[in-house]
Amino acid sequence: MTARPRTLGELGQSAWSEAPLRGRSVRDEIRTNLLRRLRDGGALFPGVLGFEDSIEPELVNALLARHDFILLGTRGQAKTRLLRGLAAFLDEAIPVVAGSEINDDPYAPISKFARERLAECGDATPIAWATRDQRYVEKLATPDVTIADMIGDLDPIKAARGGHLLGDELTMHFGLLPRANRGIFAINELPDLSGKIQVGLFNIMQEGDVQIKGYPVRLPLDVLLVFTANPDDYTARGKIITPLKDRIGSEIRTHYPRTVELGVAVTRQEAWLDRGDVKVSVPDFIAELVEHVAFEARRDKRVDKRSGVSQRLPISLLEIVTSNAERRALRTGSHTTVARVVDVYAGLPAITGKIELEYEGELQGGDAVARELIRRAAGTVFSDRAPAADVEEVVTWFDQGGALKVGVEERTETCWRAFGVIPGLLPLVYQSGLAKPADQDLAVAAAELVLEALVAEQRISRSEEYGWQRVKPRRKSYGSDGEIG
Q1: 3-state DSSP call for residue 336?
Q2: What is the pLDDT of residues 281-301, one digit of tens each?
Q3: Which one of 11, 90, 293, 328 has the lowest number of neighbouring Cβ atoms within 10 Å?
Q4: Domain-wise residue ranges, the chain
Q5: Model-level pTM?
């Protein structure tokens, strides 16, 4: 690897002193590297699944057009990951004037410090190299963010130590935006910024200059500005100033995984499932059940659509499912175990903490809503996997007074024998292809799925105290006139 130039003179003897590298803007740099990646093929945003045919083309178009852009979407839609992935389209490193706080280009300095250093040292001016990671700056917008945080402020200590007037540019303490010069500046939750901060951003985008404490300081920054926001916040009057909104080149709307299969892939990729000493196997139908919980929540009228149901819900839920299965294995002295539906119920805290309920849902309570989501998810998975299954023999056994309760920490052998008592249950599991007779662990998990699906269809009932049993007939109520209600 060729050593990088360390002085301005050495830099002048390298390719950096010639076109197209010399004087190239960060937007052109990203565009050039993106075009090369498109020609070479391969994933543009590794680890981000499901956006290849929807979000990714819009994002690529915005970058090729050299636009500032905003990603609109509810929580847990990989917006931040997409923004952080933009750093991969920057050069590995770029030359800057050593000591510059704002990545001054040696051939086009914008700070007084860099201009004086170049005038003083000439070809001996030290050159440093800013890596792509150093050129990506991210800020979470909050109402208490100030102009000083974003753009900068006058520093009396600098003035005193250097013997400068307060109006001298050398007394300025640069904020995050100038420090992102020649790079990418990302702001999460843009509408949470106060109006005056948004005006400051607009001024930078439009004119390239700011005023610090009344002193005009021209900073023609070379920055790609990218933002994220919740669609409801972004479109609400008063949340974002019109000139800033108009200046943002592209508005790109993200989304949750559009299919359960894709959601399962995302969840398995992100969840921590390798637990070391205990090997926990998560059957495909349990992984699908976990994902369906999120899909059901996104459709449920009792869940606030404005807040969304983050993809973190199935990720956290699958981790809890794995943990509960791991705990059962440790209790029973086993080194392997299979996740079951009962483990999904153990993940209620991972569900209730990630859904915002409407008034009706609040009245019912988070736990009740979450349990219903799990039951509906189980019903959907079973109907998808065994649409023609004959469950009448199983239902009849419960209708005739049969009941079964299986403990969370029961051994597989005990559960398998208990499910074998229910006529037709295990044969149904085997015939539907959910499990093979030789695999008792998987058969137990599949048997629980069948019973939970019957609960979802209200063919049988389930309670924490009594387990699975027949559906109890509703009590007849009588009005004041003696008629049945």
Answers
A1: strand
A2: 999 999 999 999 999 999 999
A3: 11
A4: 8-253, 260-470
A5: 0.88
